[in-house]
Amino acid sequence: MSDRTTDVRDEDAFDVGAVAAWLREHAAEGWRDRLRGTPEVRQFPGGASNLTYLLTYEHDAVILRRPPGGAKARGAHDMGREHRIQAALAPVFPLVPEMVAHCDDDAVIGSPFYVMTRVEGVIPRRELGVDLDPRQTATLCGNFWDVLVQLHSVDLEAAGLDTLGRGEGYVARQVSGWTTRLGNARTDDLGDWSDITGWLDEQQPADVAGCLVHNDFRLDNVVLSPEDPVRLAGVLDWEMATVGDPLMDLGGSLSYWVQEDDDDFFRRFRRQPSNAPGMWSREQVVDYYSERTGRTVTAEQWRFYEVFGLFRLAVIAQQIWYRYALGQTTNEAYAVFGPAVGNLEQRCRRVVGA
């Protein structure tokens, strides 16, 4: 992937020699001889959760992922789970990188980590990163959402992922779990969310289905094909993937989908080019997804999924803001997350009251 890299931040540095030695002994068959010597290491500055590095050897380049420092939510940043899901998906969903190695021994660099192949192509960030006219951008938009539809139709049993989830009650567990996470990440400037969490608790529907959900499906978590950039070459960041409700996954994805008629703060908070000329509106995406999957959802029913998506995004932002506010990270890119939580709180209230 041709994403920008930077020098490794001091707080995110690790023992490169220890990783190199470990990979020479433990990498997957076929990779041990290719990963000779000590790689040059660069860091990907995008993303706000797990840390991602580019390891460049003489003839190969691979990607290393590991958790951030500081306090973490229980069950979050599970490197083994992220590695296991992608390895299992590869035979039935080709848009995952090849897994190279997984290390669960904290003694190597102080945390678990895994290594995967580098997917060639462009990762859209605030801008597309490729020259497309509005018609081509609309084609890319359709292909992007088609991949989510494809993911939601993966045969869980064939992939060996049917035991990944916890069965019925996914919506209820999500509402309860994210409400707890918000409380655990409380800072002095956090507003009173009780009316919103109460509304979500009262309005929550039953699960509509159980399928593989990515839970962080965004334009800046995919790689565009270098040969045909209206098509996807890879899907990244499987940290929150599980078996769950597909409409909850769609609601989570659309919480990041900023469009031109959104308020000024939300547009400035944008991390992906969802407002590029040719991209669809959130309403168009919901209609398209419903048509492709046959899962009809009314505007009134959709209100719950939209509010939950915004609420979950606010909790994710608050967890990052918590680490920044407590000095567990000095990354200044996280300074905007506190105000973003307040903006999302107001957006939730507007949708609840609509």
Automatic annotation (TrEMBL):
<dbReference type="InterPro" id="IPR041726">
    <property type="entry name" value="ACAD10_11_N"/>
</dbReference>
<feature type="domain" description="Aminoglycoside phosphotransferase">
    <location>
        <begin position="40"/>
        <end position="274"/>
    </location>
</feature>
<dbReference type="GO" id="GO:0016740">
    <property type="term" value="F:transferase activity"/>
</dbReference>
<dbReference type="InterPro" id="IPR052898">
    <property type="entry name" value="ACAD10-like"/>
</dbReference>
<dbReference type="InterPro" id="IPR011009">
    <property type="entry name" value="Kinase-like_dom_sf"/>
</dbReference>
<keyword id="KW-0808">Transferase</keyword>
<dbReference type="InterPro" id="IPR002575">
    <property type="entry name" value="Aminoglycoside_PTrfase"/>
</dbReference>
<protein>
    <submittedName>
        <fullName>Phosphotransferase family protein</fullName>
    </submittedName>
</protein>
<dbReference type="Pfam" id="PF01636">
    <property type="entry name" value="APH"/>
</dbReference>
